[in-house]
Automatic annotation (TrEMBL):
It comes from the Bacteria. GO terms for cellular component: cytosol; glycine cleavage complex. It catalyses: N(6)-[(R)-S(8)-aminomethyldihydrolipoyl]-L-lysyl-[protein] + (6S)-5,6,7,8-tetrahydrofolate = N(6)-[(R)-dihydrolipoyl]-L-lysyl-[protein] + (6R)-5,10-methylene-5,6,7,8-tetrahydrofolate + NH4(+). Belongs to the GcvT family. The keyword Methyltransferase applies. Substrate binds at E210. Coiled coil: none annotated. It comes from Xylanimonas protaetiae. Keywords: Aminotransferase, Methyltransferase, Transferase. The keyword Transferase applies. GO terms for biological process: glycine decarboxylation via glycine cleavage system; methylation. The lineage of its organism: Bacteria, Bacillati, Actinomycetota, Actinomycetes, Micrococcales. Residues 303-381 form the Aminomethyltransferase C-terminal domain. The glycine cleavage system catalyzes the degradation of glycine. This is Aminomethyltransferase.
Amino acid sequence: MKPSDPTPSDLRSTPLEAEHQRLGAHLTEFGGWNMPLRYTSDLAEHRAVREAAGLFDLSHMGEIHLEGPAAAAALDHALVGSATAVAVGRAKYSMMCAEDGSVLDDLIVYRLADEHFLVVANAGNADLVSRELVQRAAGFDVVVTDRSASTALVAVQGPRAEEIVVALATEADAATLRALPYYASAPVTLATGARALAARTGYTGEDGFELFVGTSDAVALWRAALAAGEPLGLVPAGLAARDSLRLEAGMPLYGHELDTTTTPYEAGLGRVVRLDKTGADGAPVEFVGRAALAARKVSPPARVLVGLRGEGRRSARAGYDVVTPAGTRVGTVTSAAPSPTLGHPVAMAYVTPEVSAPGTALAVDVRGRQEPFVVVDLPFYRRATA
C-alpha cells in the first residue's frame, strides 16, 4: 500500500460490509469506500450474471432527492438532459457538466412523482454532485436533500433476475415488478416488510433490478436475495465482475471513458445532451455548459471513443498507447479486459478520427510489444431479447 493510499480505517463502509466479510469477499478501496472486489473468482461471478444472476452491493452510490414545484426546472438547468420530459415512474441517463462542457459525472435521474426526482450519482462524485445540485438549484422552488447516508442499494442482475426479485416482494407487487419496463421504477413492499424503490436498471448489459431501501433494511434484503436466488444460480458478485460486464456492454466508467477533460460528444454520448430542451412552459432552457456543448457539437472532434477487439490473446490495460501497424501513436486505452463471454480481449480507447472506422487495424503497445486489435462497433456484447 502506498503511503498516500487510504487505510481501511479511512474508508467508508456500506451497511453490508459484515455480510461481505462473512462470505469471504476480498475487499478493496473504490471511490473512498471499502468494497468487495470478488467473492470467489472474477470469471465465475461474471458468468453467473450472464447465465443466471449476480447480487451486487451498490450502497456506495449517491442518492440525492429534489422535491418541489420547480424540481424539474432545477434539473433542466443543472443537467444536460431534460427532466421535464421524463414521465413519472420512468428514468433517464444523463450527465452533469461544467461550464466548459466537460463531464463532472454521469448519473441516472428517476422521476418518482410530478415534483419529486431522485438523482443517483457515482460514489466518487456523489459529494460533488450533491453540492453542485444545491448550488444550481438556488433560486428555484425546490428542496435538495442528500439521502446517501440513509439509503442502501442492492442490485440483482442477470437473465433470472426477474424471478428472484419477484420472490422478494409481496404477492400484491409481483405483477408490478413483472410489468416494469426498462428504465422505470415503482415503490414496492418486500416480503421482509421493508418498503423499497424497485428500478429496472443496471450496469451489466443484462436484465436486472436495483432495489433502494433504508440502511436498516439492507442486511435482511441481502440475505433474502441470496436465499431466493441460490437455487436459480445467483451468486454474490464484486467490482471486478461488474467492471468486465459493463465493459462488454460498452458502458462508460467515470474516471476512464468520462472525466473533466471529456465532453459527452467525444464519448459518443451526444444523444443525452438536449441543446433544444424546453421547460414546462415551452420556453427554451439555458443549462450549465450549454454554450460550450453547442460549439463542441459542430466542431471536428480531436478524438473518438471506439471499441477494440483483440486479435491475439494478450489483453491491453487502461493507459496503454494505441498505435498504427507502423507504430504511430493514435490514442490511449481507457478500459480493457479479456472478455469471458466472447473469448477474446476487448478494450475501449480514445483514438484520432482517421483511424476510428470499424474494421481499422490497429495495435496496442503492451509492454513494448504491439498486440493486434481491430476497431469494432460498441457494445461488444448485446443480450438476446425475446
